[in-house]
Each structure stands twice: as structure tokens, then as C-alpha cells.
Write a structure and sequence with these properties.
The complex is a heterodimer of chains A (288) and B (142).
Chain A lengths: L2 H14 L1 H15 L8 H20 L12 H16 L4 H22 L4 H44 L4 E4 L2 E7 L4 H18 L3 E8 L5 H16 L3 E5 L3 H10 L7 E3 L2 H11 L11
Parallel strand pairs in A: 2-3, 3-4, 4-5
Antiparallel strand pairs in A: 1-2
Chain B lengths: L13 E5 L2 H17 L4 H20 L4 E10 L2 E10 L7 H4 L13 H8 L2 E7 L3 E9 L2
Antiparallel strand pairs in B: 1-2, 2-3, 3-5, 4-5
Classes of the chains: A alpha/beta (288), B alpha+beta (142).
Chain lengths: 288, 142
């Protein structure tokens, strides 16, 4: 008996016992998984059933040793769909792979009785199926990992975009509230968006607020100084605001020279300075 | 030369790799957590985190990556945090020159090493060209 006819036998076997295998598999899955499927039991049952269908179909082609071949397209598509959904719902890779691995027990127990008369065939079929399901399990992890990576990448990009808003405070006055870690990539984007906004609005003063920057080391200071120098070349002055006491002391000890830069403790102070510089002022109107 | 690096596997020291920018961010967070746990003042926290950030970045940028070991120390009734930055990079040819403000080989501000020394209470540096650099700092609780 060669591999092809064996695969076809297994295909027939799955079709013949699909319902009891499905019941058993569902039970295993529920016993081993720590959380309830968010989409509910019905969805899980349907996924399992579809998987058994497509597995039997793919095995019927006789190519049990190559899950990358065309006859396995449907199986792979289904697993991709399931893994992606699980990645989105925050499952662990372990739980995702369990979907496949828990099928082994159900299949093998039933095979023991079905192929009991021929030990050699039984061993050979089990070996084939075991290898096959391992391969499919690994495939789910791979897809899972990929979709996780995509989610992370998308979030990173969204963060980059989100964290660098340049806002207009007043005529000719821009503000750039910085939040979080200033690494080289982010600073580059910050600098570009600030300079672009200076061109677009013809602003004279830009306030860079660093209240939300937890650590100002020499690299961050250098990035800030470069941004300020570039803005100055375009005819805009910068004010750094949001320098907290601990940051001030640290900058002094580091020896970073910010003497050529106007700095203020709060954004409000910086705004008042900016208003004066641009010829506006705030007055308190007596209350009626 | 007496090595200032704690021995590998010495129980009280934890190790963190310094291979990417993300590692530097993770270290800053970790150092801050440690300092908060032993009740450092906000100013001392910031100073120590900044020094750690400078040295970690040096390890990465000049040392080609390495690792940092850290541990909470207790002496004379006071607590402190010890950090040891270890790389196997090209080493520093002239240590006093490297500690001089404004000296830089790669276009930085040239304040990182000297600045870090001013931000902490103990600062030891050991470097041999071709063998790598080890920097050990301690910040004591005031």
C-alpha cells in the first residue's frame, strides 16, 4: 500500500466517521482551551466541520506529503482565516495551534478500532497523519505570527502619525506637543511635519512642548536643537515649553546648552511670550 | 586589570541585552520601575534614567551592542542602583578625552559620557582598544 492510496483511505475514513470525530474533537477543544470562543460554539463547530470536509477532500487527491500543493489550497485558506481571527481576538499562539493538535487524539482513537486488524497499516497511517497535522499546526502558528506582526506594524504606523500633530494656536503661532520616546525615526517625522506646517501657515513662532517626554538625554536634546535650527533657517523661532524641574536639573548636569533657546516651564507661559512677539496680547476684560 | 563587571550568573544581578533602540527604551522603563520601588526622589529618578539612557546608547552606537547588568545595592543603611554596561566593541583609545565635554567621534553632542558621570554618584570606566568597554555606575538614594 503506498502513500497515495493510504491518503485516500484516510479520506474515506474521515468522511465515514465525520460526525463522531467532530463531536469528540469539539469536546477536546473545549476541555483544553481556557476561554470560550468569542464567536460562540456554533462558529467553532462550523469551523471544525469545514476543516474536516476540506481535509478529507485534500486527502482524496492523494498528496498527503505536500501541504503547499494546490489540492491543499482550501485547507490553508480556512486555517488562515481561523488563525487571523484568533490573532485579532488576542489568542495565544499555543491556543491557536491547539485547534489542529487537539484533532489528533480524536482521529487516532477512532483509527485504533477501525484499522485494528492491520498493525503495519495503522502505524504507517498514523505516522502520515501525525506529520501532516504537525505541518498544518505549524502553518497556523506561522499565519498567526504574521497577522500579529501586521497588527503591530499597523499600530506602530498609526502611532507615528498620531503622535505628531502640529496645531495652530493663534495667527502665526504653532504648537507641537511631543509625547513619549523621541527616537530618530519619530524625530524625523516630527521635524518634517513642523517645517511643512511652517511653510503652509507662514508661522513666525513654533512652541515645542515636551511635557510628555519622560526622558531628555543628549540625543533628544540634539534632535530638539536640530529641529530648532532648521525652523530658524525658515524664518520661524522656536520656544521649548514643558520643562519640568527634574528635567531642568538633568539638562544642567548633562551640560546641554539651551541658552540660545527660549524655554518656558509651561505651554501657557510660552504662549504669552509668543503672543507678545507677534504683536498680540491678552487683556482681562472687567466682568459686567 | 581588575574587572569592574559583575561575574556572569552572579545571583543578584539581572541582565538585559542592548542590541536595538527598543532595548534602550525597555531599559529606561525598567530602571525607572526599580527606582520607584526603592523610593528615589523624582529628580534622582530622572538623573539616573537619563544616565542609563546615555550609556545604553553608547553601548549600542559605539560598542556595536552589548548588555547591561543591574542590581539594587544596600550599604550603610542606604539603597542604591548599580548598572554595568558591557560591550565587546572597538574600545576607547583615550578615556580622559572621551570624558571631555564636546568630544565626539560620530557627530553627537559629545556630552553623553561626561554628562552621565555628573548625573550619578559612582562612575567607573574600563576600556581596552579592540577588547571592548565596561562602564559601571551607582546612584545612591539621598
Amino acid at each position: 500500500m503506498n502513500l497515495n492510496t493510504q491518503a485516500i483511505d484516510v479520506s474515506k475514513f474521515i468522511k465515514k466517521y465525520q460526525y463522531p470525530i467532530l463531536q469528540d474533537w469539539m469536546q477536546n477543544l473545549k476541555a483544553q482551551s481556557v476561554r470560550a470562543d468569542p464567536a460562540g460554539d456554533e462558529q467553532l463547530r462550523e469551523h471544525c466541520n469545514q476543516f474536516l470536509d476540506s481535509l478529507a477532500e485534500a486527502l482524496r487527491s492523494g498528496k498527503a506529503n505536500d501541504i503547499t500543493s494546490e489540492s491543499w489550497d482550501e485547507v490553508r485558506n480556512l486555517l488562515t482565516e481561523i488563525s487571523q481571527a484568533r490573532a485579532k481576538y488576542g489568542y495565544t499562539p499555543n491556543e491557536t495551534a491547539l485547534f489542529i493538535f487537539s484533532l489528533k487524539q480524536s482521529l487516532f482513537t477512532r483509527m485504533l478500532t477501525e484499522f485494528a486488524q492491520d498493525a503495519a497499516t495503522l502505524v504507517s497511517i498514523m505516522w502520515m497523519l501525525s506529520t501532516l497535522l504537525d505541518g498544518l499546526g505549524l502553518f497556523t502558528i506561522e499565519v498567526f505570527q504574521k497577522s500579529r506582526d501586521q497588527i503591530i506594524l499597523r499600530q506602530q504606523q498609526e502611532l507615528l502619525e498620531l503622535s505628531t500633530p502640529v496645531v495652530k494656536l493663534w495667527k502665526n503661532i504653532l504648537a507641537l506637543p511631543l509625547i513619549g520616546t523621541l527616537d530618530s525615526d519619530r524625530t524625523q517625522i516630527v521635524m518634517e511635519s513642523l517645517l511643512q506646517k511652517i511653510v503652509d501657515t507662514g508661522a513666525e513662532i513654533a512652541i515645542i512642548d515636551i511635557t510628555g517626554v519622560p526622558t531628555v538625554d543628549t540625543l533628544v536634546a540634539q534632535h530638539l536643537l536640530k529641529t530648532i535650527a532648521a525652523a530658524r533657517l525658515m524664518g520661524a523661532d522656536c520656544i521649548i515649553s514643558g520643562i519640568r524641574p527634574q528635567i531642568a536639573q538633568t539638562i544642567v548636569h548633562l551640560g546641554v546648552n539651551l541658552e540660545d533657546v527660549i524655554t518656558k516651564a509651561t505651554l501657557a507661559d510660552a504662549f504669552v511670550v509668543a503672543l507678545e512677539r507677534t504683536g498680540s496680547s491678552i487683556t482681562n476684560r472687567p466682568l459686567a | 586589570m581588575i574587572s569592574i563587571a559583575p561575574k556572569l550568573g552572579s545571583p543578584e544581578f539581572q541582565t538585559l541585552p542592548l542590541k536595538t533602540d527598543e532595548n534602550v527604551v525597555a531599559l529606561r522603563k525598567l530602571v525607572r520601575e526599580q527606582l520607584v520601588a526603592i523610593n528615589f526622589s523624582l529628580v534622582d529618578q530622572t538623573k539616573c534614567v537619563t544616565a542609563a539612557s546615555e550609556l545604553a546608547r553608547n553601548t549600542l552606537k559605539y560598542g556595536g551592542g552589548g548588555q547591561v547588568r543591574f542590581s539594587v545595592l544596600a550599604a550603610d543603611g542606604s539603597l542604591g542602583l548599580c548598572l554595568v554596561f558591557i560591550d565587546a566593541g572597538p574600545g576607547i583609545k583615550d578615556v580622559p578625552q572621551a570624558l571631555t565635554d564636546g568630544f565626539t567621534t560620530q557627530g553627537g553632542l559629545g556630552l553623553g559620557l561626561g554628562g552621565a558621570r555628573r548625573l550619578v554618584d559612582e562612575f567607573d570606566i574600563e576600556s581596552e582598544p579592540g577588547k571592548g568597554t565596561t562602564v559601571r555606575i551607582v546612584k545612591w538614594k539621598k
